[in-house]
UniProtKB/TrEMBL annotation, chain A:
Record keywords, A-Z: Cell membrane, Membrane, Transmembrane, Transmembrane helix
Transmembrane segments: 9-27, 47-65, 72-90, 96-118, 125-145, 165-190, 219-238, 250-269, 276-298, 304-322
Location of this chain's protein in the cell: Cell membrane
An example molecular function term from Gene Ontology annotations: transmembrane transporter activity
Bilayer topology annotation: Multi-pass membrane protein
PANTHER family cross-referenced by the UniProt entry: ABC TRANSPORTER PERMEASE PROTEIN YPHD-RELATED-RELATED, GALACTOFURANOSE TRANSPORTER PERMEASE PROTEIN YTFT
Protein name: Sugar ABC transporter permease
GO cellular component, one term: plasma membrane
Automatic annotation (TrEMBL), chain B:
Protein name: LacI family transcriptional regulator
InterPro entries: Peripla_BP_I (IPR028082), SBP_2_dom (IPR025997)
Keyword Signal: yes
Signal peptide per UniProt: 1-20
Alphabetized Pfam families for the sequence: Peripla_BP_4
Alphabetized UniProt keyword annotations: Signal
GO cellular component, one term: cell envelope
GO terms assigned for molecular function: carbohydrate binding
Signal among keywords: yes
Localisation per UniProt entry: Cell envelope
Annotated Periplasmic binding protein domain residues: 44-302
Xref: PROSITE patterns: PROKAR_LIPOPROTEIN
Membership in a protein family: Belongs to the bacterial solute-binding protein 2 family.
């Protein structure tokens, strides 16, 4: 029992459950999941579906933060990827062709990869501070997306493209399946090999890891490329969901939500230790928070305040010092065993 | 290393600045001839090109200036107030006959407007207003009346449910919190429907004027409320997103849930013609011809109204089918 309570994801999980349960008082059918036209339908499905772009971005952000960096450009990469895919599909003679859509998806992901390379080279080869290096693409990338689309919202009517963000396979949303596959692949690749340890070493101390013979430069570039490709997939899901590319709105400020998700998940912003499961949980929590504000009818003007309060409660609950202070006041002192040093 | 790079970036920025300076110089040169003759010269500073609506607005102004024989000096502020202030100062230096602009934000215009007034150049605001206390700083403000748009939406709803005593459950998708169109469209709509207690707004949330948020919020509404009769969205895009949510819930947009939106951009009109939206209140970007008329009157010394409302209409499904082929934006 204490092992569960001590787990670093215990408190975020508690807040997530509390959030979800609080909805039932306002929408009694909140936990009901039904089959609608052959696919799962319900609020919990909405929470998962709307968490997908953020979960992917947070996954990529986790790896970048683990190397001691940060990537502000993920939102702009999302915008570029969506814009390129929709423009390409819009020019197809037959928008319904699966081959054409796959080509568009491939093109968008290759561009995302190039964006990641750019970030990685700026940070690890040229040596610019990550926050500044990725700020360049954050600003320029959205400009590029707007240039590509001429500032317009690009609409497509392509059934195969719609599948990515709004389709269902075996009654499950395809976007959720995509995220599950990417996360599983990342966990296998990073946690079942030495890669994760190497990344943590680079994040903890680039100099020491280099002296130990780790190719810090390559790993750092790899992390930025991974983050950008994740953002690229997120951009495809985002634009496919509404069958259009809106280069102003796509991924706007998502970098901050992603950083929040990563921090909720217990990854230190200073680099080193990271938790993929934690970041995904953080993304689901943020999405649940959004859906909750809509369901319980928080007035539009106070939505941000409501979110801020929940985040503050969450951060306080995660702080061992805060919990200790609260518990000490409630119980008589000296009964609690000496606090273990958090690993 | 870092120092070298910042030096390079700085040099680049200077070069760009110099180039931009050249461009500005060119403009000033050609502007000299415009002011003296009989032809009216107008300096226009646009917000940017952030949406289809805005692009259509720019095009309308450029085309109607050409038709009206007005020499237009067009400047794009790219969403930044400082660019707009610079543009207005350069218009003053060029001694144009009339300055028109769409303010990026509401506040902080007093100084530059005072400079224009001192130079005896009349100013016309388009589309958006400024919060200056001194109303003599500009001649006129031409743009949509967002409250009126909300009222028109409400009036259609009242007429649609005339003679039916059952309660009508309405959900509302608001624009970005604090934006004038969102506040005013909400207020106008509420004012009209409050006359009859059968109309009830059961949920109202912001959809940020975007499709994605419109869809997400509507999904949550559909689960929280089983009995939605009407959706009122503050713009077409949120309505289009909501349509997808309604369809995914196995309901028919336009039939099971009646939809009213504001804007009448091409995508919205297409959905209206297809029967997925029931009614659209137009918010027209095509204010060019009215602006040129105003400019001529101001130049001729005639007194003009301080507030001119853009000529706008409303569309039913039938009207949308007729209007759709010529829809420009």
């Amino acid at each position: 029992m204490t092992a569960i309570v001590k787990h670093r994801l215990f408190w975020p999980a508690v807040v997530l459950v509390l959030l979800l349960v609080s909805n039932v008082f306002f929408a009694p059918r909140f936990f009901t999941i039904t089959l609608q036209d052959g696919h799962l339908y319900g609020s919990l499905i909405d929470v998962l579906r709307s968490a997908t772009p953020l979960a992917l971005v947070a996954l990529g952000m986790t790896m970048v933060i683990a190397t001691g960096g940060i990537d502000l450009s993920v939102g702009s990469v999302m915008a570029i990827s969506g814009a390129v895919a929709c423009l390409f599909i819009g020019d197809l003679s037959n928008q319904g062709s699966v081959g054409g859509v796959l080509l568009a998806v491939g093109l968008a992901l290759v561009l995302a990869l190039v964006a990641g390379l750019w970030n990685g080279v700026l940070v690890s080869v040229i040596g610019i501070q990550p926050i500044i290096a990725t700020l360049i693409l954050m600003v320029a990338g959205r400009g590029i997306a707007q240039l590509l689309t001429g500032g317009q919202i690009i609409n497509v009517s392509s059934p195969p493209f719609r599948v990515i963000g709004a389709g269902y396979a075996l009654a499950i949303p395809v976007s959720v399946i995509i995220v599950a596959v990417v996360v599983a692949a990342a966990v296998l690749l990073i946690r079942r090999s030495a890669l994760g340890v190497l990344v943590e070493a680079v994040g903890a101390s680039p100099t020491a890891s280099r002296l130990a013979g780790i190719r810090a430069r390559g790993l750092t570039i790899g992390a930025y490329v991974f983050a950008a490709v994740c953002a690229g997939i997120a951009g495809l899901i985002f634009s496919s969901n509404v069958a259009s590319a809106d280069s102003n709105a796509a991924g706007n400020l998502i970098e901050l939500d992603a950083i929040l998700a990563v921090v909720i998940g217990g990854t230190a912003l200073t680099g080193g230790r990271f938790s993929i499961a934690g970041s995904v949980l953080g993304a689901v929590l943020i999405s649940a928070l959004d859906i909750t504000t809509y369901t319980i009818g928080v007035p539009a003007e106070t939505t941000l305040l409501f979110k801020a309060v929940v985040v503050v409660i969450l951060c306080l609950s995660q702080s061992a010092a805060f919990r200790a202070a609260v518990f000490r006041r409630r119980r008589t002192p000296a009964v609690t065993p000496a606090a273990e040093v958090p690993a | 290393m870092l120092k070298k790079w910042s030096a390079a970036v700085l040099a680049g920025a200077l070069a760009v600045g110099a180039l931009a300076g050249c461009g500005g110089g060119d403009d000033a040169g050609s502007g000299d001839s415009g002011g003296g003759g009989g032809k009216i010269t107008m300096g226009f500073s646009q917000v940017g090109a952030e949406s289809g609506w805005r692009t259509a607005n720019t095009k309308s102004i450029q085309e109607s200036a050409a038709t009206a024989g007005i020499d237009l000096k067009f400047s794009d502020a790219q969403g930044k107030q400082e660019n707009q202030i610079k543009a207005i100062r350069s218009f003053i230096a060029q001694r144009v006959d009339v300055i028109a602009f769409s303010p990026v934000v509401e506040s902080g215009w007093d100084t530059v407007l005072k400079e224009a007034k001192d130079a005896n150049i009349p100013v016309i605001l388009t589309d958006r207003s400024v919060d200056s206390q001194d109303k003599t700083l500009y001649k006129s403000f031409i743009g949509s009346d967002f409250v009126l748009e909300g009222k028109k939406a409400g009036e259609w709803l009242v007429k649609e449910y005339e003679g039916k005593p059952e309660p009508v459950n309405i959900v509302e998708l608001q624009g970005s919190p604090g934006a004038a169109p969102a506040n005013d469209r909400k207020a106008g709509f509420a004012e009209v429907i409050k006359a009859d207690p059968k109309f009830k707004v059961i949920a109202s949330q912001t959809g940020q004027f975007t499709r994605t948020d419109g869809k997400e919020v509507m999904e949550a509404f559909l689960k929280a409320h089983q009995d939605i009769d009407v959706l009122y969205a503050h713009n077409d895009d949120m309505g289009l997103g909501a349509i997808e949510a309604i369809e995914a819930a196995g309901k028919k947009p336009g039939t099971d849930i009646k939809i009213i939106t504001v804007d009448a951009v091409k995508d919205g009109m297409t959905a209206l013609a297809a029967g997925k939206i029931n009614y659209i209140v137009e918010c027209s970007p095509l204010l060019g011809p009215q602006l040129m008329d105003l400019a001529k009157k101001v130049k001729a010394g005639e007194t003009v109204e301080q507030r001119v409302v853009t000529e706008e209409t409303t569309f039913t499904q039938e009207q949308a089918k007729a209007a759709l082929p010529d829809r420009k934006y």
